[in-house]
Amino acid sequence: MRQKVATGILALAFSAACVAAEGTPVLIPRASTTVTPITITGNAFYKGSDRFYIRGVDYQPGGGTGVESDPISNLTACERDIPYFTKLGINTIRVYAVDNSKNHDTCMNALAAAGIYLVLDTDTSKYSLNREDPSESYNSVYLQSVFATIDAFANYSNTLAFLSGNEVINSAANTNCAPYVKAVTRDMKQYIGSRGYRSIPVGYSAADVAENQELMADYMNCGTTDQRSDFYAINDYSWCDPSSFTTSGWDTLVKNYTGYGIPLFMSEYGCITNTRTFEEVAALYNTEMTGVFSGGLVYEYSQEGNGYGLVTISGDTVTPNSDFTALQSAYSAQANPTGNGGASSTSASTTCPTKSSEWDVANDDLPAIPAAAEVYISAGAGAGPGLSGAGSQNSGNSSTESTGTASAGSGTVTETATSSSKKSEGARAPTFDFRALTVGVVILFSMAGGMALL
Ligand SMILES: *[C@@H]1O[C@H](CO)[C@@H](O)[C@H](O)[C@H]1NC(C)=O
Ligand SMILES: *[C@@H]1O[C@H](CO)[C@@H](O)[C@H](O)[C@H]1NC(C)=O
Ligand SMILES: *[C@@H]1O[C@H](CO)[C@@H](O)[C@H](O)[C@H]1NC(C)=O
Ligand SMILES: *[C@@H]1O[C@H](CO)[C@@H](O)[C@H](O)[C@H]1NC(C)=O
């Protein structure tokens, strides 16, 4: 439920998206603090030879203001918040949108110095898939922005993963977007490989929609290596304290995903129906789940008008709320399992789902990368448009759109790197997550994921 900047008729949503900070001073040294990059083996993440579990929060300070901004291009803002990350005991933040025309050295280095990794959504409100028109919005203008974001973050050792889309599919009615999401993931992997970058994992963040979250999981991990995601992430709000592993249904969740051959984590969790005590942390980092899940990210760091904030920010002042303390205690009380936590050392692909009333995808073909975007793969994307560019959703035309399909493994998009990079898709379509929560008088219409709506 990334809060998004609403455009058009959905502008009534509390848009949120990271407003905090931009404008990094120009004279920042490019020297970097390095951490051990995170890698994938089988269905788990590793830091060197140690299993790595994501313990994190979703970070979009200013997201409630309605103006999309980048919280990690402004040292004042990230320096204000990093001490609280440290206090919580986290190792990862997720950022929903960044300005790819800005420099991020200072915040990324400060995060690295605190041992914190970044899971980054590569879409922005203006540059994303449009779930109402995936074919037109999957175009070279969009991919140029995505690739420029990869360029801006690929060199940081604490870039943990890229999210190629967030909740693009949010109902049974738009599963037809799946091939575009998968194509973007493929293209991102191709770009990372072809540009010679470290094999930064690419995956998709799926909405909490019971009818198709697992179908999408299978779809993103089926087919040839170049098309398979490196991991899958789910948004899940089913554990509402007080609850339990069985009451919440997380036992079934684990059963359902058992044997899934790539890393899986929660890109958002933390139901606020009742007071949050974060009982679920004791399950998430326990062997009852760690054979299948690699941790997760709590939604969300700052109070942005929808009731999910762990802290309240006012100018330079950060005030922790009661659930901040609860999360801090829960993390500190639950150590990671010893050894590999039940992880599988081999990667396994899935079988592509077949077309049904809940899955509107006819076959395993993907749209080929638009010809105009292939140029970026070989020559680089060039300067990013930032957050205030003209946008890409209406940029589809005969010269920017995909004009054909690429069958699995057809080689239409060729990987040139020797690394494990693959192609994937990534796109964020406009998604709405109408999670109606009664939080005082607040009914939250959060528009998750993608940004763009018409
Ligand atoms: C950076 O963040 C601080 C703290 O939120 C804010 O006061 C300042 O205006 C931001 N600077 C820019 C250039 O956005
Ligand atoms: C990444 O780092 C390498 C080596 O320091 C440098 O040559 C290259 O320009 C950097 N790339 C970007 C996009 O910053
Ligand atoms: C698990 O899978 C079953 C059968 O497909 C489905 O009905 C159920 O909703 C799933 N439960 C969870 C928690 O994923
Ligand atoms: C197609 O869209 C691109 C990007 O917006 C634009 O530069 C180009 O002129 C358009 N071409 C046609 C034929 O409309």
Features of this protein?
single chain; alpha/beta; 23% helix; 454 residues; binds 2-acetamido-2-deoxy-beta-D-glucopyranose; 1,3-beta-glucanosyltransferase; TIM Barrel; Glucanosyltransferase; three-stranded antiparallel sheet
Question: In words, what does this structure look like?
Answer:
It is a lipid-anchor; GPI-anchor. Its EC number is 2.4.1.-. There is one protein chain. The protein has about 450 residues and is α/β, with parallel strands linked by helices. The protein has a single domain, classed as Alpha-Beta Barrel (TIM Barrel), CATH 3.20.20. About 25% of the residues lie in helices and about 15% in strands. It has eleven helices and 17 strands. The strands form five sheets. It has an eight-stranded parallel beta barrel. A three-stranded antiparallel beta sheet has the order 1-2-3, with no helix packed on it. Strand 4 (about 55-60), helix 1 (about 75-90) and strand 5 form a beta-alpha-beta unit. Helix 4 (about 140-155) packs across helix 5 (about 180-195) and helix 4 (about 140-155) runs parallel beside helix 11. It is globular, with a radius of gyration of 20 Å. The chain starts with about 35 loop residues before the first strand and ends in an 11-residue tail after the last strand. Residues about 5-30 and about 410-454 have low confidence and may be disordered. The chain binds 2-acetamido-2-deoxy-beta-D-glucopyranose (NAG) (4 copies). One 2-acetamido-2-deoxy-beta-D-glucopyranose binds next to loops.
